[in-house]
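Translate sequence into structure tokens.
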Amino acid sequence: MDGVLMVSDLSWIQRGVAKEIPDKIKLDDEKLKELIEGAIPESTDNETELDDDEESDNEKLKGLRGRGDVEMKDEESEFEKKYMKGYNENIKDEPEGQDGMKGIAMYSTNKDDPYVTEQVDSDEEEEKDEIMVRKDDNMVAVAKIDKGDFTLECYVYNEADSDWYCHHDYILDAPPLCIEPVQHDPGNEETGKGNLLAVGTMNSEIHIWDLDIMNTATPFLTLGKKERKVKGAARKKRDNSAQGHTDAVISLAWNRITTHVLASGGADKTVVLWDLDEAKPAQIIPDQGGEIQTMKWHPNESTFLLLGTMKGQVNVVDCRESSGNASAAWKFDGQIEKVIWNHFNPFTAFCSSDDGRLRHLDMRKPGECLWEGVAHDGPIGGLTLSALTKGLLVTVGEDEMMNVWKVEDTNGGIEKVHSEKLTIGELHCAQFNPDVAAVLSVGGTAADLIRIIDLTKYEPVVKAFSE
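Result follows.
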């Protein structure tokens, strides 16, 4: 993905979910010294290796970049056309025998550095104040692709003070395609609640990060981890169906009612329901007619999953049915970019597509639309509904436009009330603050990449929703 600069996805975290004082991992002097000097631990007899028929992480990434050289296909999949563009260039091999952090740091502490003459002890209380997440703060998780660098950044937003800053971040080993907050922590025996974030990437694994832990280099949990065997152990036949996805993970949805369940949609056209307590697939829903680009659990019914595919299919699946047959279905031209439920009227939902069309659907009328129209000139990557203001809908697209809509109660019609071109390039994602009615964040591809927008500052919006 050389040359790509974008926010691929973002998500708000509700107030009160994040830990007030996050945990902070600190390396002891010996480990930090090893890191600085580039020390490599000696291998042991217990060292593991990949199965013969599996690729290492680096080889997998290389394979994705040069997939045409590895696997012959009659035609590219919709996923490859959308995401693999610019990703088929050769990776320059890293020189062997890295020297760790030499040249960046030479001493593990200031006390060991002869050039530091003034030794100042850190003030623990001051540090706590700097990293504190207050009860009226929201956290915003942002998945960022910056050419060859992939990061997950955690921002803090405070409505009262208009504070907005990057609190901490994590380095990812593959391009992030989708993220999803998860407030169920299988490691928390007291409450079972947590501040986790699932990340779907180009590889087939799902990495779950604990946002309450700073400075960590590894995820809290990995789902669908590639099987490894101990050297000398008997070889087992690989069963892909038991391992989750066999291709990139491009959509995620956490079940707020059955909190230990996370759904993932893949480029392999399947949906996997993960049991977070067991860290393994509980159910695999077969081919849904295309790569699963977007999905959302019903806000009130724990078993209904709304999904959209790159083949233009929109399905409502009852996950109690192992067959995966849709309870309601629609077929449209173009790729489905986003689907969301209308939580003010849970019989209905909205969907957007890459031909710029916005649609309002009723689950009781499969195959029909309550309303449809052209909302953007090109793909609509962001579609979000206010958590508190009824009918306040926002779309953003690759035409760099943000459009604000009002959804009518009577007939399900949709009226545009405001339109504005933002200055952060093509727009790929947007989401309303769950605690503030008219504040949303938008992710783009230029300048500062992300924008916080307060719609109460727009007179046409205020007028439309005060009537």
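Note: The radius of gyration is 23 Å.
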